[in-house]
Specification:
By secondary structure, the protein is α+β, with helices and mostly antiparallel strands. Helices cover 43% and strands 16% of the residues. The chain has four helices and five strands, in the order ααβββααββ. It has helices at residues 7-24, 28-48, 81-84, 90-104, and strands at 52-55, 60-65, 70-74, 126-128, 131-133. The protein has a three-stranded antiparallel beta sheet with strand order 1-2-3, with helices on one face. The protein has a two-stranded antiparallel sheet with strand order 4-5. The chain starts with 6 loop residues before the first helix and ends with a strand. The chain binds zinc ion.
């Protein structure tokens, strides 16, 4: 479960992400796609944070998609169709937003201190409730 407690910090992280896209992405279509991916990521984090877990060890965000019933682990690379097609996806946008938020936020409780969020040692492909996790 992922919950953004400091909305102010998160808002700043979002604004920074959008301005970074504006400043660094030259292709207009790619720029539009990243802006959309970031907007979707923000909405998903707010509405479906219950289905996300931050993996502190490899700094990745685990996202369970209710739509595709797939689990995506994103830290710059992703397993979704959009990523395979070289298109920005909200998983990567969300992962980046959460990473920067956690780095920025001086929260006393970090995800790595919450035991139930820790990945188990055998974190390789396994089935959990009919879902294959890679
Ligand atoms: Zn993705």
């Amino acid at each position: 479960m992922l919950q953004i407690e400091n909305k102010q910090t998160f808002g700043k992280v979002i604004a920074d992400a959008l301005s970074k896209v504006e400043l660094t992405v030259t292709d207009a279509q790619t720029k539009r796609r990243w802006v959309r991916a970031i907007a979707r990521a923000v909405a998903e984090i707010e509405e479906n944070g219950n289905f996300m877990s931050w993996m502190a060890e490899d700094k990745s965000l685990l996202i369970w998609s209710q739509k595709t019933d797939g689990v995506y682990s994103s830290n710059g690379i992703c397993q979704c169709r959009a990523f395979l097609q070289g298109v920005p996806c909200f998983h990567r946008a969300a992962s980046r937003l959460v990473r920067i938020y956690l780095e920025t936020e001086d929260a006393p409780v970090q995800a790595e201190e919450i035991t139930y969020l820790k990945p188990t040692i055998e974190h390789k492909a396994e089935r959990v409730g009919g879902i294959r996790i890679n």
